[in-house]
Amino acid sequence: MYDIGIDLGSRTSKIVVLNKQSLVYNKINDTGVNPKETSKKLLQSALKDLKIDKNQINHIYTTGYGRNIVPFSDKRISEISCHAKGVNHLIPEVRTIIDIGGQDSKVILVNKSGRVLDFAMNDKCAAGTGKFLEVTATTLETTVDKLGELSNKSTRVVKVNSTCVVFAESEIIGLIADGKNKTDIIKAIHHSIAKRTKNLLAQLHWQSPVIFTGGVARNEGMVKAISEILDIEIFTPSNSVITGALGAALFAREG
Fold it and tell me: What is this structure's pTM?
């Protein structure tokens, strides 16, 4: 028998399947314009790839922005709780979680059992989120996947002062017109997001170890920027994108 967690995010959606012992399947898809259909496709893919049917599923729990629109969900759980649960399962010693997704960023404090002690969210402005990086990549005629690699080639310090994505786009265009190097601009954007993350952390009594999750955690330049701004080592597990779905699946397995 299996339990499933689905994290339906604003940009990407993830599914995790557990049996009684371990994680047996995970997949990530773009959420697209029809999140409900995306959730159905993720479930269908899991059943097909694992060669199982719905009768072998105990529970399906959902989280993320679209958790309430998944028609086959047995229970909806907040993404805060699911990220805490998933991270605690992967790295029990972690006490602070930084999660940056496509539309929001959050800091979560957890205890040794993975219970949420406190949290802070930035969900009303895209400047500290993956959306900022998408705008940067488009403006600089590159892709989000290449931003980390390019920022590591930076040789000069450039400052981005805007705290709004709309104004930052204009500022980037101005920096290009001034002859600033693309790699230096990207590094400046990473540091701008890192500073906003630090401001979120300042609202809480956080402590190490710190783990960085979410889609933006795959950006090596972003990991480096946050480490430099906080002056501590940041952990980024290889499966950092699925921690929310993993947490939902763990809750599902507990019933």
Answer: 0.91
